[in-house]
Specification:
alpha+beta, four-stranded mixed sheet, 10 helices, about 25% strand
């Protein structure tokens, strides 16, 4: 993506990352059993520095995209440039409430649950314990004549909320790059071939910057998410412009809302993140660090080129829930246009299927835009990790004695699982477990590689 001028170094990272995912516009399986357990913690987008969030509601050829703006610099320095498949009308551009994106992030976030083992003497058996750089001062908008001389057509201009919007088309990338530069946008030379590829696809360009007067009227301190809607056969998320100025990899959370079922990428592997694994109790205090390490390990094992499913479920129920399901009104605020607000509420799932996709990407590992498809698969999946509290009573019976003997071996399996998921040192894991009352018994001799199966995809 392209940003405007004078952003400080710390601010610039936020702005560029937001734009990387904001450029994410469109031209664009687990068993269905009851999980139960008690919800303990979640791993939402706040865990990942500068993670961009995009909500994409699509049915048929109609798409509504809502882009969170995590930009924290001066508002006059903010801008975004996004490829779109059509010239957007003013009534197709809106602002949304940031709280709605936070809601769907919290609802679909990976989660940690806890179980409490029952008295083994009271039951016949127990389950296995582990079953862009600084930019020049903003310039006034170039007149249409200057744009036309560069092969750039200003298709439309709007003010929507606190944003000034310009819709552009172009004949060639050099002219578009010149127009952007003269209008106050930084356009590195590396941008030219990316712009050229979008022009070749007859894409238009959605350019937004903050209208300071309108922002002052609103009294808002933060920029609200931009939301656009359009009709197009293309179901994709253009991310390549966002890689031009980026420093290292960026995280993108895509919340895909559909009627059909689970959404995945058609041109990159889509894998389910590891789930339903029992890990040591001490992770309850370190769940954020655990999930970040686990996600990085999963991405590395996939060669840095996979998109991960973290949640796939019908809206309005989950087990356990990391947050309350979204209401019909909230879903409509996120662009779900097919719901009838006057329909009687009969309980159960509404006609919305939620897919949460998470990708860590850069230009080398993801040289193409994300092409998406709805699969029709409605099986439930969530990234869920389990902690178990042992029964602390006497349990003076044969089953109880067998339970006690199994505990240490079960703790070792938890230690092995955690070390394999995260790359953490196994001896440090064992030491933390012992300090928390879960003293594992390290095995002797060669060990089977059973734990490698946790990386198998769904």
């Amino acid at each position: 993506m392209l940003t405007r001028s004078r952003t400080t170094r710390s601010q610039r990272g936020r702005g560029l990352t937001m734009l990387a995912a904001a450029a994410a516009l469109a031209a664009l399986a687990g068993p269905a059993h009851a999980f139960c357990g008690f919800y303990v913690a979640k791993a939402d987008g706040e865990l990942f520095n500068e993670a961009s969030k995009v909500v994409m509601a699509r049915d048929g050829d109609r798409t509504v995209i809502t882009m969170a703006n995590d930009y924290q610099g001066a508002p006059q320095d903010f801008a975004m440039v996004i490829p779109t498949p059509v010239v957007l009308r003013e009534d197709q551009i809106n602002v949304a409430e940031a709280a709605l994106i936070d809601r769907i992030d919290a609802y679909s976030a990976p989660r940690l649950v806890e179980y409490f083992d029952e008295n083994p003497c009271a039951r016949p058996a127990i389950g296995d314990l582990v079953a862009a750089t600084a930019l020049p001062e903003a310039a006034p908008a170039s007149p249409r004549r200057r744009a036309e001389s560069l092969g750039v057509t200003i298709e439309a201009e709007y003010t929507v909320g606190e944003y000034d919007i310009v819709i552009l088309s172009a004949e060639e990338s050099g002219g578009l790059q010149t127009w952007l530069s003269e209008s106050g946008y930084r356009t590195p030379e590396e941008t030219k071939p990316v712009l050229a590829s979008y022009i070749a696809q007859d894409m238009k360009f959605f350019v937004a910057k903050v209208n300071l007067a309108e922002q002052a009227k609103s009294g808002g301190q933060f920029l609200r998410p931009l939301q656009i809607s359009f009709e197009s056969e293309k179901y994709m998320l253009p991310i390549r412009l966002g890689t031009v100025n980026a420093k290292g990899k960026q995280d993108l959370l895509l919340f895909a809302l559909s009627r059909k079922g689970r959404v995945e990428t058609a041109n990159y592997p889509t894998r389910k993140i590891p789930s339903d694994l029992t890990i040591p109790l001490f992770v309850q205090e370190e769940f954020g660090a655990f999930y970040k390490a686990m996600f990085q390990t999963a991405s590395d094992r996939a060669g840095g080129r996979a998109v991960f499913t973290e949640y796939a479920w019908d809206m309005n129920w989950c087990d356990p829930c990391a947050a309350d399901p979204l209401t019909v009104s909230e879903l409509q605020g996120l662009g779900v246009f097919w719901l009838d607000p006057n329909a009687p509420n009969k309980g159960g799932a509404v006609d919305v299927y939620v897919t949460r996709l998470h990708v860590s990407y850069d230009g080398e590992s993801f040289p193409e835009d994300l092409r998406l498809m709805a699969t029709g698969d409605r099986r439930n999946f969530q990234a869920r990790f389990i902690t178990r509290h042992p029964f602390d009573g006497a349990a003076d019976c044969p089953a109880g004695r067998a339970y006690r003997e199994e505990l240490a071996r079960g703790y070792e399996r938890q230690a092995q699982t955690l070390a394999n998921l995260t790359g953490w040192d196994i001896s440090e894991v064992r030491a933390k477990m012992a300090a928390n009352g879960q003293d594992p018994t390290p095995p002797s001799g060669d060990q089977p590689d059973w734990w490698n199966k946790i990386w198998e995809d769904g």
